[in-house]
Amino acid sequence: MQAEPITQKDRIYSIDIVRGLALFGILLVNLPGFIMYSEDVPMPIEAGIDAWIRLSYDLFIQTKFFGIFSFLFGLGFYIFMSRAEQRGQKVFRLFSRRLFAMFAFGVIHIFLWFGDILTVYALLGFLLMPFYRRKSSNILAWAASLGGLYMLTQSVALVQTLNGQEVYPLVASLQTTLIPIFVMFLFGLYAGKRGLIAQIREHKPLLKRIAVTTLAISLPIAAGIVWASGVVFGSKLEQVNKILVDLSTLPMALCFIASLFLLLDREPARKILLPFAYTGQMGLTTYLGQTVIMTILIPLFGITAMRLSSWFLLALPIYAFQLLASWLWLKRFNRGPMEKLWRFLTYGRKKKAVPAPAN
C-alpha cells in the first residue's frame, strides 16, 4: 500500500488557525533580527511608547510563539504517524524522510536567515520518534520532568544573576533553546495521543485546568518581567529580564495553547479567526516566505534601525499580504508550493495539484 498525504476533509482547522496565529507571532519575533545591528546601525533606544511595546513583546510574544509552534510540531507528528499507521505504512521510515527534507530546507534557509528553526526541529524530531510508541502517561512524565528541570535551572540562573554570579553562556543557550522546544514537542505528542485537540469538548475540563494552572505559574513570572523591564520601577535589569522571559516560555505557551483551543470551540471566535487558517495551512511556505520578503524589502527600501513601534507597523502589512496570498493560492490549490514539494520528498511521488472544492 502506498502512503497518502492528509486531505482537506481530514484537516483540523483549529490547528491551522493556531498555527497561523503563531506564524504572525514568529514574524514579530524575527523582524528586528533581519537587520544586523552594528556600530553603524545601533540598536534603537527603547523609550516612551517603545518601552511599553518592548514590555508587551517580552510578556506575550518573545519565546511564547515558538513554544506554540513547537507544540504544534509535536501534535502534527502524532497526526502524521497515526494516520500513516492506519494505512499500514512504515511510519518511522516515512517520517524520517519528512525530517530529512525539513533539514535540507533549513540548511538552505540558513544562508538567508541565521535564526532558522527548521534544522533544529528536524534534528530534535529524530529524538521525538521513539516516544510515538510510549504510553501517553509516560510521555507526560517525560515532558513534566524535562520541563521542571528547565524551570529549575532557569530559576538557579536567575538567583545567580541577582547575586552577581556568572551564568555560563553555552549552558544558558542550551537551556533556552533545545530543552523548551523538545518539551513542547512532547506536550504536543501527549495532546495528540489523548485526543485533547481532536475532541476538545470532551476534554474541556482538563484544558481549563491546564489554562488556570499555567496562568497561576505565569503571573509571578510576568510580574518579575514588569519589574525587571524598568518601565514601571526604574532602571532595566537586562540579564534578569532575559532569564525571566525564558522562564515564562513553557507555562505561558501552554496557557495560550489551552486558552486558544477553548476559544476556538466557540463558533463566533472560530469565524473571526478563520483567515489565519490560510497561512496556517501553508505554514512552511509562510515561514520561509517571511524571510524572502524581508530579504527583498530591507535592501530595496534601505531599511535601517527602526523603532519597535515601526517594526510592529511593518509586520501588519507583511502578514496581511501573506494572508491574502495564501487565501488566493488555496482557492486554486489544496496545498502551498513548499508543502507540495515537502509532500513529494516525503512520499516519493508527484501528483498534479488539484483545485480546492468551491465553498
UniProtKB/TrEMBL annotation:
Membrane-spanning parts: 17-38, 59-80, 100-127, 139-161, 167-190, 210-231, 243-264, 284-305, 311-330
Superkingdom assignment: Bacteria
InterPro entries referenced in this protein's UniProt entry, alphabetically: Bact_Transport_Assoc, DUF418
Entry keywords, A to Z: Membrane, Transmembrane, Transmembrane helix
Domain DUF418: 191-348
Statement: the UniProt record of this protein carries the keyword Ion transport: no
Keyword Transmembrane: yes
Name the UniProt record assigns to this protein: DUF418 domain-containing protein
Organism from which the protein derives: Brevibacillus formosus
